C-alpha cells in the first residue's frame, strides 16, 4: 500500500507581537488573568494588507524548501479566514508560490481543519492521484475578532504552518498511520460567525453588526473539546495498535493550556509529553498543530522515531486525530519561526 510520508515542514508568523499587557490597556483584563485561564503570554497579529494567503504561501515555501522538492501535485489549505468569501484561497496561495496549473482547494473545519486537510492529502496519495501534496493550516484570525470581546481577543493569534507529504511505504519514518474524524452539526452555534453566509442573507433581515464577528461559547466548548479529543485519540490509537504508553508526543490543537492538560489527563498521558507553544503564539486555529510541530522540531522536542499523536476540536462541531512516526527531516528549520528569514518579501 502507498502511504503518505511527511518530508517537509515550515511555518510563518507575522512580525507584529501583541502582549497581554498591550491588551490590558484596552480591555478589562490583565496578564495574570489571561495566563491563568489560557496559558497565553503573547500572540502574533497581521499588519494591514497582510492576508491569510501571504502567511500560507510563506509557510508553504518554507516547507517545500525543507523537503528538497521544487513542486507538488496538490495544495490543500485549511483555514477559517479565507482572503475572500469567493473564490477559495488555496489557488491564490499556489500562485504566490509559483505553483502554476496545480490543483488547490480549501478545507473549512475551523480548528480541526489541519487534521481534515492532512487526511485529504494522505487520501490523494493513497489513491494514486498525487505523488507529493502540500498541506497548509493558515489563519489571520485577528481580522474576525470583535475588538471589545475579551473572551476571544485574548485567545487567538495569526500564523501558518505547512507540511509536505510524499508517496512512500507504511513502515517508513514519517508515514501517516491512521485517522479518526467526526462532526456534530447540532453544535454549530458553539463556535460561529452568524453573518455573511447564505443563512443570514436569505433571512430577509439585515445582519446585526455583532454578527460579522467570531463568537464562541467558551464553557461549552471546553467540555466538548476535552471529551471529543480524548475519544478521538483513543479511537486512532486503537486503529494504530498503540497503547497510551507508546505515545512519545501529544500534539493537540493549541486551544487553551487547560484543555491540553485535561485531554492528556483523560488519556492518562504524562503532561510533559504534550508539545505546547501556546504561550508564545496563542490559539492559531487551523495553523496551531503544524506550528507546534515546527516549533517542536526546531527546539529538538521532536526527534526522528518519536510516535506522535495529533488531535483537534473545532467549529462545526468537528474533531479529528491522526498518528505518525516522526521523520528525519532536513535541518533547514533549525531556529524558532520568529527568527527565520522570510522567503517572500513583497506582498
Automatic annotation (TrEMBL):
Enumerate the active-site residues: 111, 253, 283
Query: Where does the protein end up?
Result: Cytoplasm
Query: Where in this protein does the record put region ACP-binding?
Result: 254-258
Reaction(s) this enzyme catalyzes, per UniProt: malonyl-[ACP] + acetyl-CoA + H(+) = 3-oxobutanoyl-[ACP] + CO2 + CoA
**Domain (Beta-ketoacyl-[acyl-carrier-protein] synthase III C-terminal): residue spans on this chain:** 237-326
Q: Which InterPro entries match?
A: ACP_syn_III_C, ACP_syn_III_N, FabH, Thiolase-like
Annotated metabolic or biological route of this protein: Lipid metabolism; fatty acid biosynthesis
Please verify whether the record's keywords include Transferase: yes
**Matches recorded under CDD domains:** KAS_III
Q: Which residues form the Beta-ketoacyl-[acyl-carrier-protein] synthase III N-terminal domain?
A: 105-185
Might you give the EC number(s) for this enzyme?
Answer: 2.3.1.180
Its principal location?
cytoplasm
Give the keywords, sorted.
Acyltransferase, Cytoplasm, Fatty acid biosynthesis, Fatty acid metabolism, Lipid biosynthesis, Lipid metabolism, Multifunctional enzyme, Transferase
Highest taxon of the lineage: Bacteria
Indicate the segments annotated as coiled coil, or none if absent. none
Q: What is recorded about the protein's domains?
A: The last Arg residue of the ACP-binding site is essential for the weak association between ACP/AcpP and FabH.
User: Quaternary structure per UniProt?
Assistant: Homodimer.
**Task of the protein:** Catalyzes the condensation reaction of fatty acid synthesis by the addition to an acyl acceptor of two carbons from malonyl-ACP. Catalyzes the first condensation reaction which initiates fatty acid synthesis and may therefore play a role in governing the total rate of fatty acid production. Possesses both acetoacetyl-ACP synthase and acetyl transacylase activities. Its substrate specificity determines the biosynthesis of branched-chain and/or straight-chain of fatty acids.
* Family the UniProt entry places it in: Belongs to the thiolase-like superfamily. FabH family.
| Name by which UniProt lists this protein | Beta-ketoacyl-[acyl-carrier-protein] synthase III
Which organism was this protein described from? Kribbella koreensis
Gene, per the UniProt record: fabH
